[in-house]
Amino acid sequence: RVCKTARLHNRSAQQCFITETATVMADLGSEISAKNEECVKQGDHVRALKANKVDKDALAPEIEKLKNLKLELQVLTKKQAESQAQAGGDKAFNKETFRKQLSSVLEQNMFYMSSFKIYGGVAGLYDYGPTGAAIKANLQQFWRQHYVYEENMLEIECPSVTPYPVLKASGHVDRFIDLMVKDVQTQDCHRADHLLKDALEKRIEEASDADTKKKLELVLAHLDEYTAAELGAKLTEYGVKAPDTGNDITEPFPFNLMFATSIGPSGNQPGFLRPETAQGIFVNFRDLLYYNGNKLPFAAAQIGQSFRNEIAPRAGLLRVREFTQMEIEHFVDPEDKSHKKFASVRHLNFLLYPREQQLVASGAVELNVGKCVDEGVIANETLGYFIARTYLYLKQVGIDPTRMRFRQHLQHEMAHYACDCWDAEVDTSYGWIECVGLADRSAFDLDAHSKATNVDLNAFQKFDKPVETEVLKVDPVMKEIGKGFGKSAAQVKEALLAMSEDAKLAMQAKLDAGETGALTLASGEEVAIAAAHVTIKKTMQKVSGKTFTPGVIEPSFGIGRIIYCLYEHAFYSRDGDDQRTVFKFTPVAAPVKCTVFPLMQKPEFQPYTQSVADALTKAGMSRKLDESSASIGKRYARTDEIGVPFAVTVDHTTLTDNTVTLRERDSMLQVRVPLDEVAGLIKSLCDLTATWEKDVLSKYPQQAAKDE
After folding, report:
1. By CB count within 10 A, which of 318, 428, 523, 616 is most buried?
2. Count of CB atoms within 10 A of residue 164's CB?
3. 661: closest CA among 671, 653, 652?
4. pLDDT one-digit tens code per residue, 622-631
């Protein structure tokens, strides 16, 4: 009796301690949430100040405030970890712990793993295992269904090896760079800005006086703005050495992120592994336009591998050297960027982070996409349409819509030729990650390739009826052209008559100023045109249509990043038990749609399990047949761990009434379904034409769950 009383007393004390600890943890959780919100808001404020190029002295105290908030957040997080440890939990809830647990489950179940692992692996290269490859294939196929089939796009496939002139014209040869330094002894390579950042952050932590700390923080705040020379000077000033050896480093120099190669055995034709799939679409524009009946607008799409030779790849699938892109180039009349299907999405509301909100650091807000287009927040209907469709795609594959936003590029972020750009960003343990870029690129790419090749990449739009309009008429003076250019006279005439309206205006301005204008011939030769060679004047003319270089709206998807974000958003532990991990993949993304079990290993169950498995295969769904001797609960847990949404179990009742149990993963609820209906029902659930709550629980009788 004494022992029993003691046990009761101890149990009461433990319950009291647990209750007190839970209260402390709840309070800490609230404090951490509030402090994190302060950090996010202050970070947005600092970003807005930088965008507005405020004075350095005004920026410094705001950066200092952000640093202090982050330190306070670290203290609270540490307290939370200590409290959890005291409560008997050795798994502190923080980002690092979460990532380690997630990575362990992903690797154990072969979602993805380091490539060439038995040789030590290569940074930035990863293999997708059976589960990961299936998820990737599902997302790609749903992308085709959502975009290519829905919009009647023209899907093409182009080589990964790209000749040098193509990427020279696109700007990648000259501008696709990061600044790099080398260890002078070992020749190991490092990204220059990362070395300086690490050195500055260490000095800031060790700084004993406010003035020194402030100076270091100002340097850090302007890190992204330094030229190669300025970055080199800062590396020297702060005595930055190679991190692994302590050796001196070279001056920073530009490193092109493309993988160089040569085409053919002679090595005389240089090329690169493509850094994006888009250029293959642009160089095929003329043929695609013809294939489409010379009608605009139209879109071309491509799914394929791209390559970027990252200096320091990190964060798993988020920054890699080879990755799969899914890109769309939607070609439009620059003067008419309306979209005939915009009305079908204009009612949608979701998180948007327009430029104005960023400049005042107010955070993303839920806005109506139709209103944003009407008010000019989003530049045009076509861009707005693809933003809305991207929101729907990401939501349907399983990205949490409350942790997804569309951020508009600030003016200094956009290329000079871009009209408007937005990024679909997803909140993860690494922060906000860009997964999709949506840009109105104007006519830059087609103009660049047309100029480089002297190939006409214009489109002609025929009017319903001819109209009188003012045009610039070009009249070559053949007598003078013959004198000046001899055998090239015909080429000169052809090039003059082929000039675009912008080229005519530029030529006219040069000639009116008494100068000569440059003209590129079909042969590639550039000649100087004088006023005596041509007459350019405005005249009224009846025209049947117009010729123009199409503008381009480009949605560009990085599928590896989407997949990683999906992993984070879908991962959880059942009832807080770290040993019962689950991926709540949507049926669209799930690597296996359904598992089929016999309740136990009995020969009379086998025909029924095989019948269900065959029916699922015939319906076009991936399935897994598990006839192992493990308990039914363990088999459910195994499939939960790879995110299988449904499970069918053949039991003794099946032998008498031809029904099976159908289990839903997240609720763990089970219903009895006739054998001849189960495959069709699962097909409807996976196609999203039926739901578990509305179409299953309301129709089929529930059954008590088997022991889990």
Report:
1. 616
2. 17
3. 671
4. 999 998 888 9
* Residue 151 burial (CB count, 10 A): 19
> What percentage of the chain's residues is helix, strand, coil (to nearest 5)?
45, 25, 30
- Report which residue type is found at 297: P
Q: Classify 28 as helix, strand or coil.
A: helix
Strands 594-598 and 404-408: unpaired
- Evaluated on CA atoms 473, 477, 481, 482, the torsion sign reads positive
Amino acid, res. 687: D
Task: Give 623's strand partners.
Answer: 594
What is the distance in angstroms between the CA of the first residue and the CA of the last residue of the chain? 36
Q: Which residues of 340-361 are buried (b: 16+ CB within 10 A; e: fewer)?
A: eebeebbebebbbbbbebbbeb
Amino acid identity of residue 680, one-letter, is G
Nearest to 435 by CA among 564, 342, 297, 345: 564
Mean pLDDT for back-to-back runs of 10 residues, the chain (708 residues) = 38 37 54 75 79 82 84 71 48 72 92 93 94 97 97 97 95 89 91 88 84 81 77 93 91 92 92 96 97 96 95 84 97 96 97 86 88 96 98 97 93 80 94 93 93 92 87 92 92 90 90 93 89 92 88 96 97 83 96 95 93 95 92 92 96 94 95 96 94 94 77
**Distance between CA 568 and CA 562 in Å, rounded?**
10
Pairwise CA distance, residues 615 & 518, whole Å: 70
566-to-197, 308, 536, 643 alpha-carbon distances in Å: 30, 23, 59, 12
Q: Directed axis angle between helix 95-108 and helix 559-570, to 10°?
A: 110
Contact 536, 496 (CB under 8 A): no
Rounded to 5 degrees, what are φ and ψ at 376?
80, 5
Three-state SS string over 205-254 comes to HHCCCHHHHHHHHHHHHCHHHCCHHHHHHHHHHCCCCCCCCCCCECCCEE
Q: How far apart are CA 274 and CA 15, in angstroms?
A: 62
Q: Radius of gyration (Cα) for the chain, nearest Å?
A: 31
d(CA 479, CA 489): 9
DSSP-based three-state secondary structure for 276: coil
**Residue (of 223, 213, 221) closest to 193 by Cα position:** 223
- Read off the amino acid at residue 60: A
Dist CA 357 CA 51 (whole Å): 12
| C-alpha closest to that of 283 among 165, 172, 386 | 165
Residue 83: predicted pLDDT: 57
Identify residue 617 by its one-letter amino acid code. Answer: T
| Type of residue numbered 405 | R
CB atoms inside a 10 Å sphere around CB 618: 10
Contacts of 64 (CB under 8 A, 6+ apart): 213, 214, 217
Residue for token digits 């990085």?
558
